[in-house]
Amino acid sequence: MIPLPRGLSVATGLVASHQDVPHFLGQLAQRQFTGYARFVFGASEVLLVFTGGKLTTVLATRGEARLTGLEAIAELCQRVAVEAGTIDVYQLGPELAARVSGVLQGEYHVRAQELKSVEVTALVAKIKARKLNGCVAIYTPQRCSLVFYRDGVGFGFFHDGSQAIETGATDSQKIAGQPGAKMDVMSTRPLEQLPATDFLEVVNVQKVWEAAVRANQARADELRATARAAERQRQESKLTELAEALHVIAAKTLGPMGRQMMTKELAARGGPGFLLHPDQVAEALAALEKGARLVAGPSKLKELTTQLKAEIDRQLAPPQSPLP
Amino acid sequence: MDHVDAFDVVRVSLWLVAGLISLFFSVGNARIWTSISTGFFLVFISEGYLVAPWVQHPSLIALHSVVGTIAVLVITHGFMEYYVFSRTLETGGAKWEVYALTAAVLAASVLFIFINPVPSTAAIRHIRIIENACWVFLVLINLDLLRKIHQQVRDTPIGPGFVGFGVVFFCVFLWRGSMLYLQVYGWDEDATALGPVAGNAAGYPFRVGLSENVNRFASVLSSLTVGGTFLYLARLMR
Description:
The structure holds two protein chains of two kinds.
Chain A: E1 8-15, H1 21-30, E2 35-41, E3 45-51, E4 54-62, E5 65-68, H2 69-82, E6 85-91, H3 94-105, E7 107-114, H4 120-129, E8 134-139, E9 144-150, E10 153-158, H5 170-176, E11 182-187, H6 199-202, H7 205-215, H8 217-268, H9 278-292, H10 298-316
Antiparallel strand pairs in A: 1-6, 2-3, 2-6, 3-4, 4-5, 7-11, 8-9, 8-11, 9-10
Helix pairs in contact in A: 2-7, 8-9, 8-10
Chain B: H1 6-26, H2 31-47, H3 58-88, H4 95-115, H5 121-153, H6 161-184, H7 189-194, H8 205-236
């Protein structure tokens, strides 16, 4: 895995097999996204860097193998079509995004070196002597920090959560002090020499995606069926949780009888599935209110139905778009 | 009007207030309350004979007692429905059905009274005994129903209101039970007037005096507790 700090988290842990790759990339482009997306699969990963909605860098890695550009996009489509994976999206400032592009296109001098075996003073002296243009990545499995160098002199840092280049070294020092911390040293091209290609313009991602899906239809169907089943299960578990929350609200206002009334309304409508249909929810609340009128007054009932509606709306609210 | 004493006027007035409060409570509330409220309003109608100018007519005296019997039947029906609701959470019916059915039963009672001979003093006494017997036994059933209803609804906003109804029925039990006691032993005014069925009231002055006083004051307490309970319910159901 290529070590990169996280940036400002936009979406994490998205299920890759739920995504239509051209649509996903198109959304990032449409929203003028600046930052990077990381697709992680079983044995590989794909990193995509966007600047103002332009896909400037694509890098796919599998072990030591590295693919870029069209090949990397084809690899991405292939992996999403056949393999389970996750997506994390982080927003960065334009300069930092450009620096990350540089890092992904850079050349390694030292890779995965245990920090405890490194003589730091000597290393810094060496970087200075060679007038390194590039960066040093310091990382553990959980955290990462980049130190950028120009002509052998450190000029900024990229820590977890940053959107712009920072000057404080605290995070880097903390990571360096952790057991098992490692480092990479790489040289990068100056920003002005980085290619300004927008891969979304030069590559027909839709065609690449369709070809990947066609080639892996059976596997893709299976993946989607699994995803649908997982989604169904998630929905059922969410509805069960919601039903319990509604029972608790009813019991709070009407005691055990409120809980019984809620159970009756749920049973009468074949379980909590009806909560997904607003018209049936309105009917159920009206029926509940009709019965509850025998044990509580209008103000309590209004309060109860308001709370029930709010809980249903809160728990069943459509998820926010994962993208900026 | 020479038969009307001030105490009766107060008593009937208090029943009027209690009946109106119970009727107003049922307006805007669930259908099951209609039966209970209508029943308590009918108690006022049945007590009205005490101050009604036409009280001397035996058919109307009998009719008032019949209305009193219908009152406790309607109230009991209401509480039975509430009990069924508290166990099954099922509700049904409409308010107009309660009013229509009560009106039909009243009409049938009027018809029954007027197609039969004018009731004698003995017949009126029998009707009054039936009325009080119905009240006493149905009050006991209602107390048991209230206990069971309270177990079901005690954690709801209306829960404490059913304790109020328990007090109401306790007062009603004293009121109707004391009169039934007097009637059974022939110590009531009607028995004295009839002569042959009169008991030896003079031989038991304490029991007779106590029962008469309990009857008068429990009637007033009943009306006060009915009005108070419905006001309390209205407060709980705001």
